[in-house]
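in:
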């Protein structure tokens, strides 16, 4: 073992990006992974009907993501013009779901945000629903804010932390270099292409991979360890070595997500997709029209990904109910929702179901309370995952870029 050896536990996107940044900073890196192959949640499957993503279908573009893709030789696609149409549901799909009577309170919020944004900033331990109702009125809270957050956080708005999710919009931070394209992007070959290219680059760089060998840490390690697993696996790893961290990881809920990617002969809605606010009490969180975003995802069909689950209170169905359902029952829910919400009654040529039980962190006020503990980590233990302040691949990449300096400042080698 070299004097600058770092062990990364987890070979999903978090672990691979952490290792990539550490290697660039001159560290000797080893990755340990529980599964037989790297990738974590992210994979791109090829079916006879078209492409299926097992997790995100794209990522918010940043200068850092563009640079990584260019380094790896991965071509990023920008969304098609049709994807500019995005819908929130209020008695039907709407580009802007507020009514005339809702506008004065919302316009007042916009004016205060421009003139003195801190006057409308979220308060500690304030939920998304409480904050949005306070600063922009109940209709904007229920249909605009809560609806928009469904596609990312899939949480209960009465528990979601406004400060954790939205606080960054009220702080003055150094400006990052702008990417060439703003918005969502995806590799030409799907999100799995990025993960596979990153894995290959790390192997070329001499990073050692040990698969199917993760064991709980029994004591604080004698060299830096980056825990880049999901929250559930991280707490089990740390019970013996860092019980305070393990308790903090158990202090917030993990949500279940189920996605059904189905291939239809026609559209339910044209555009990026439609999200259903919790207020609507629908059985789905929303739908993405993959082929209107990235047309190469299917040659002969309209590809739609329907999202079910989330935290209890995010939709009319509890995750525990959904996990008991068969694939046939889940596609029946999709067909019922498709008909009720959009009047679309066609049957799919095929579909694929992906289940992620207790995988997505619920960005609740409970998470807000323990976030300082999680960010602090422990002696030679550095947490790196989608529960540390912001969700999404771009944010994970940002945190990976900060790891080398953090380890240089706080890491120690026996």
């Amino acid at each position: 073992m070299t004097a600058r050896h770092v062990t990364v536990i987890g070979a999903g996107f978090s672990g691979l990006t952490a290792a990539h940044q550490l290697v660039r900073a001159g560290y000797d890196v080893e990755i340990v992974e529980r599964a037989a192959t790297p990738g974590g949640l992210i994979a791109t499957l090829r079916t006879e009907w078209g492409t299926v993503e097992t997790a995100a279908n794209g990522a918010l573009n940043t200068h850092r993501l563009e640079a990584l893709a260019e380094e790896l030789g991965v071509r990023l696609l920008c969304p098609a013009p049709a994807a500019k149409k995005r819908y929130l549901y209020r008695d039907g799909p709407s580009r802007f779901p507020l009514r005339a009577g809702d506008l004065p309170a919302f316009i007042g919020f916009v004016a205060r945000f421009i003139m003195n944004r801190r006057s409308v900033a979220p308060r500690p331990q304030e939920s998304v629903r409480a904050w949005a109702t306070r600063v922009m009125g109940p209709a904007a809270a229920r249909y605009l804010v809560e609806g928009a957050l469904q596609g990312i956080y899939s949480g209960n708005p009465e528990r979601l932390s406004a400060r954790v999710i939205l606080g960054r919009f009220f702080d003055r931070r150094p400006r990052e270099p702008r990417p060439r394209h703003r918005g969502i992007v995806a590799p030409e070959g799907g999100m799995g292409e990025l993960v596979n290219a990153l894995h290959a680059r790390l192997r070329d760089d001499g990073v050692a991979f040990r698969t199917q060998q993760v064991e709980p840490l029994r004591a604080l390690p004698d060299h830096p360890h980056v825990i880049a697993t999901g929250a559930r696996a991280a707490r089990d790893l740390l019970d013996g070595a860092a019980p305070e961290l393990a308790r903090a990881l158990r202090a917030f809920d993990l949500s279940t997500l189920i996605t059904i990617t189905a291939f239809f002969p026609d559209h339910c809605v044209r555009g990026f997709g439609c999200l259903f606010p919790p207020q609507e009490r629908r059985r789905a969180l929303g739908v993405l029209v993959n082929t209107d975003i990235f047309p190469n995802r299917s040659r002969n069909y309209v590809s739609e990904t329907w999202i079910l689950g989330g935290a209890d209170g995010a939709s009319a169905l509890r995750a525990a109910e959904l996990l008991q359902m068969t694939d046939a029952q889940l596609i029946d829910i999709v067909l019922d929702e498709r008909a009720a919400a959009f009047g679309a009654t066609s049957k799919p040529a095929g579909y694929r179901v992906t289940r992620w039980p207790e995988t997505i962190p619920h960005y609740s006020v409970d998470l807000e309370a323990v976030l300082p503990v999680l960010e602090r980590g422990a002696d030679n233990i550095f947490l790196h995952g989608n529960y540390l302040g912001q969700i999404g691949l771009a944010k994970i990449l940002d945190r990976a870029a900060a790891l080398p300096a953090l380890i240089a400042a706080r890491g120690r080698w026996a």
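note: The chain has a mean pLDDT of 94.
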